[in-house]
Every structure is written in C-alpha cells, then in structure tokens.
C-alpha cells in the first residue's frame, strides 16, 4: 500500500469509523484553569483534565501511547506525555495523591528520554514519520514538545527540588529558544520576528497553537527563575504574536498556520486558539490578545462559518497532505 493510501486509511479509521486513536487524547474541550496563577508558578494554565483521564493504551509504567493506526501504530508522543503530566499536576494540586505519583512518573520519563540531536542540543524526538505538508521523517523534534516539556519539568523541580529536573529543563529550554540552524526550534524571519516552530520545515509554517503553547513554557521559566534573560525571551515572542496575529485571521475563522496557502483551523483548534489567547491576555494584559479572542469567538456564533471551516479543512487535508 502506498504512503498516500496508508494516510487515508489512518484518517478513515480515526475520523469516520471512530476507532480508538490518537484523537481520543487530543480532542477534548479546551478550557482555561481557574486555579492558574500568573504572578507565581502554580497550576498549569489549561485544565487538561480530560488528558489526565486518558483511557487509551499505556506502557507497563503507565506512560501514554497514542494509537495512530496503519504503519505508525502505537507511539510515544512527547507532547501528549507532557500534557498528560501537566493534567495530573493540576489534579495533584487539588489534593489527588495518585495524580501526584503519576506527575512524578511522567516527569522522570521526560528526563530519561531527552536526546541529543545532530547539532548537540537536547530534544524530545518523535520516533515516527508524520504527515504535515509533506512527509516529516523520523526522528523529528518540535518547539511545542520543548515548551510543554519545560512547563512540566519546571513544576517537577519546583515541587521536589531534585536537580535532575533542573538540568533537564535547562537543556530543553536551550533548544526551545536556540535558532533552527543551530539545532533549536526558533526561526527569525526577515523582519526580525522570532517564531517557535511546532514542526521544523523549510520554509517555516508558524503553526499558531504550537507557538502559543511553547511561549507558555518560556513564561514558566521566567516566573520560576526570575531571570532578565527569560523575560527578554518571553517579550520577544510576545512581540511576534502581537504584531502578526492578523496573519491568522481569515475574516470568518482563524487559520491553523501562516503559509502561502494557509489552512483554516478545525473547530477544535479554533476553540483552542480562543483559550490560548485568553491565557496570553492574562499573562501580558496586551489588548491585542483580548481583541482577537473576542473577534474569533464571534466567528463561532455563526453556524455558516463553522460549516465552511469544517469542509475547507477536510478538503485541504485531502488535497494537500
């Protein structure tokens, strides 16, 4: 079977036949966490409760495995594992002792699975091929994984004081904020704006949700370490978002990424954008984040917009992936 047919087979299993798949982990309801703090490190900014309660396959140590079907099969996904751990951290913060143990177990797994890339920086690799605007070959790393991993490990160090977490989060932070040509995840465009790339491609695609989640990791570093360096890094990425959010506005919906043939966000990712923009507004009090949050929320009130977004996204994937 060709790669193209395998892709369609996997999509049909997940979306049409509704078999147990990676979607069981990703596609819950995005929610802000009312317990989150923005002045000190505390519970994570999104609830991630449905991620913590993931009922899909796990390994013998309770670490989630996502089932992609087809040739990919069951795989560790470092983004999902970090978010699973953050969900359990939130439940631990609410007094759930079992979740406290799971949070530590996941944090230990993330420490052990940091690997050096070809440039000598430490990253969390995805050890499977992925389809996103062409084939993304294994092993590949992600600014989103680095950012979520930092958010997890900074909390592990905060709670335990164990140096292994500090060493790992500093290594992950270095690759998160280093230039792509040096083995990192940050791209500087011709205007000087710095983007954290969820998937490293040439030319870069600027996936919006991945960038915003990664920026939360930089903010966590600043909150905990209180270093002027991390504050400058955070401000640099915020400037990129503040000045370029208009690129993701389709006038009826939000775009998923910012390429020459931009892809509309699915209804799930559009809702996620709203939650992430709300969090960024709480972090920075920048009016632009409130403006686009409210504007994009208004798009969801129009049923015609939802239908267009759904069919456009499905057609785009069929034709472009």
Structure, described:
This protein has helices at 3-16, 23-26, 49-52, 78-93, 97-112, 143-160, 163-177, 208-225, 228-244, 267-284, 287-300, 303-320; strands spanning 66-67, 74-75, 115-116, 122-123, 130-131, 135-136, 186-188, 194-196. By secondary structure, it is mainly alpha-helical. It has a single domain (3-320), classed as Glycosyltransferase. The strands form four sheets. Strands 1-2 form a two-stranded antiparallel sheet. The protein has a two-stranded antiparallel ribbon with strand order 3-4. Strands 5-6 form a two-stranded antiparallel sheet. The relative contact order is 0.09.
Brief descriptors of the model:
321 residues, two-stranded antiparallel sheet, two-stranded antiparallel ribbon, single chain, mainly alpha
How many helices? The count is 12
Overall number of strands? 8
At the first level of CATH, what is the class? Mainly Alpha
> Low-confidence parts lasting 5 or more residues at pLDDT below 50?
4-17
> What integer value in Å does the Rg equal?
19 Å
In terms of DSSP E residues, the strand content is 5-15%
Integer tally of domains: 1
Reported by name, the CATH topology is Glycosyltransferase
Which overall shape is indicated by the principal axes computed on the Cα atoms?
globular
* Helical percentage: 40-55%
Major beta sheet, strand line-up: 1-2
CATH architecture call:
Alpha/alpha barrel
């Amino acid at each position: 079977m060709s790669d193209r047919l395998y892709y369609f087979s996997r999509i049909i299993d997940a979306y049409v036949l509704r078999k147990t798949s990676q979607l069981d982990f990703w596609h819950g309801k995005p929610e802000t966490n009312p317990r989150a703090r923005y002045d000190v490190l505390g519970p994570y900014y999104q609830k991630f409760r449905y991620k913590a309660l993931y009922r899909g396959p796990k390994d013998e140590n309770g670490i989630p495995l996502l089932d992609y079907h087809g040739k990919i099969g069951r795989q560790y996904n470092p983004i999902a594992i970090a978010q699973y751990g953050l969900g359990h951290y939130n439940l631990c913060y609410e007094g759930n002792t079992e979740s406290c143990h799971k949070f530590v177990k996941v944090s230990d797994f993330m420490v052990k699975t940091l690997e050096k890339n070809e440039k000598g920086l430490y990253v969390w690799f995805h050890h499977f091929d992925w389809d996103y605007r062409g084939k993304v070959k294994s092993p590949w790393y992600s600014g989103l994984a680095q950012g979520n991993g930092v958010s997890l490990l900074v909390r592990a160090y905060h709670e335990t004081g164990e140096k292994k977490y500090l060493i790992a989060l500093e290594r992950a932070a270095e690759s998160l904020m280093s230039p792509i040509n040096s083995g990192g995840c940050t791209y500087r465009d011709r205007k000087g704006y710095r983007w954290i790339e969820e998937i490293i491609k040439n030319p870069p695609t600027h996936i919006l949700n991945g960038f915003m989640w990664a920026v939360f990791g930089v903010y966590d570093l600043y909150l905990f370490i209180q270093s002027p360096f991390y504050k400058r890094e955070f401000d640099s990425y915020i400037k990129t978002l503040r000045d370029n959010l208009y690129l993701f506005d389709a006038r009826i919906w939000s775009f998923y990424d910012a390429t020459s043939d931009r892809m509309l966000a699915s209804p799930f990712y559009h809702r996620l954008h709203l939650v992430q923009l709300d969090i960024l507004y709480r972090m920075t009090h920048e009016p632009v984040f409130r403006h686009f949050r409210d504007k994009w929320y208004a798009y969801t009130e129009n049923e015609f917009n939802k239908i267009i977004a759904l069919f456009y996204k499905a057609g785009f994937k069929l034709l472009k992936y």
